[in-house]
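Our preliminary data section would be incomplete without showing what the modeling component actually yields. Below, a chain of 259 amino acids is followed by its predicted structure, encoded as tokens that our downstream tools consume directly.
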Amino acid sequence: YSNGTVTNFLILSAEERGIGGASLYFTVLAAFLVFFRPTAGKLSDKLGLTCILIPAYLFTSTGLIMIAHAPNIYILLFAAAIKALTGAEIYISEIDYGLLELMNARFDAPNMPPFRAFEADHLLKDGDVLDFGNIRLECILTPGHTPGAMSFFFDDRDDATGETVRVGIHGGLGVRLMSDEMLALFDFPKSLRKRFIEDMTKMADWEIDVCAPSHSNVIDFAGMVEDLEDPMDYSMFVNRQIWRDLITRCRDEALALEA
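Predicted structure:
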């Protein structure tokens, strides 16, 4: 479905944003498909399916985001290359997917692309579990940033040590969107912020070994690795305090909005 959506609406979306030469997207896409599809099969036989699927899922998500927000033809062509390397499917919270049509009506503007110019392949619900090779991704509804904001958790095993670590990704830490003004703008109830505070109070005590931020500005990982001697040493990321500090900080910011 995601491929059909891109194929049908890419040119119109590019014209709306003033991006010329968007048809080159399909040329780049075809070229990478011809090269990569046979190579992917051989790599899968040699390295295993997991080594192909996990990077593919990551590149898929990146490619779709780049298509949606591309400011120029260069980003669009790069997105074509990433999409060709993967075969993209769209996962989205069922609650937020239903809200997108309402957002289209509320924020209809000539130069703004539609909020929901795509069909979702998978609608996520609270408690869903997604299997990606040896990774089981648990989906937890964490309203606040949006009514359908989802957070994700999985266990990962270190093959070198045999230890298993718990990884957590909170998907809705945009506290500024929970101010009275922003809630009123989107016609969201103030109870959404209260639910966020309650959930964060509980989640601060969860034993999360590795905190994977949903945005790069949430945690200064770049600063953490700046003086790292061994680029493969990931031990600094295995730190439960990072999760606790992040969740507590965002909860306190939301509490300040209640005052």
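Residues 1-9, 65-77 have pLDDT under 50 and may be disordered. The chain has nine helices and seven strands. Preliminary results of this kind motivate Aim 1 of the renewal.
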